[in-house]
Please model this.
Amino acid sequence: MDTMKAVVVYESLWGNTAAIARAIAESIGPEVRALSTAEATGTAIADADLIVAGAPVLGFSLPSEKMRENIRTNPGKAPAPPNLSHPSMRSWLDALPTGHGRSAAFETRIWWSPGGATSAIVRGLERAGYRTVAKRQRFIVTGAYGPLRDGELERARLWGAELAKAME
Ligand SMILES: Cc1cc2nc3c(=O)[nH]c(=O)nc-3n(C[C@H](O)[C@H](O)[C@H](O)COP(=O)(O)O)c2cc1C
Model:
């Protein structure tokens, strides 16, 4: 564990995925950081032994550029402005340099929705050479913009600990 480099990377417009990412990171280990797709570049991810990547499900899938643009121009009933300052997980995955570490994917979503984000995340991580180390995870929000369902942060912490164990 001492020498393992793990990074948790997220796309998050309203903060739910970022909160889950932080909970996962802190339970993998004290030096592990949760980074937005803007922060997770260059040396921050170089030679990572483990990349955990997460995003919200928007429009039944990993957010597309079109969906992000629609949200930017028409924020609807959002309780807070969307954070679109960091790139989409899609574009981050497209630019991810080849690596030799392991990976895991998660999404935040409402519980009953069809579709999901993790298949596309897993595909992108594996395309770059990061082989899956654990079953993908879903974390649930109770409304379109959140908040997270009670207990989801705790579940994220448990999953982070499981990931750390799987990497031993
Ligand atoms: C415009 C919009 C579309 C959404 N589409 C879906 C969807 O198709 N399936 C789903 O499960 N959740 C959907 N959600 C709920 C989000 O996935 C959920 O709020 C997520 O936690 C947001 O993550 P964030 O706070 O990190 O941006 C949608 C929310 C919004 C605002």
Q: What stands out?
A: The chain has a mean pLDDT of 96. The CA atoms of residues 105 and 121 lie 6 Å apart. The chain has five helices and six strands. Residues 12-18, 56-60, 71, 108-110, 113, 115, 141, 144-146 surround flavin mononucleotide (CB under 6 Å).
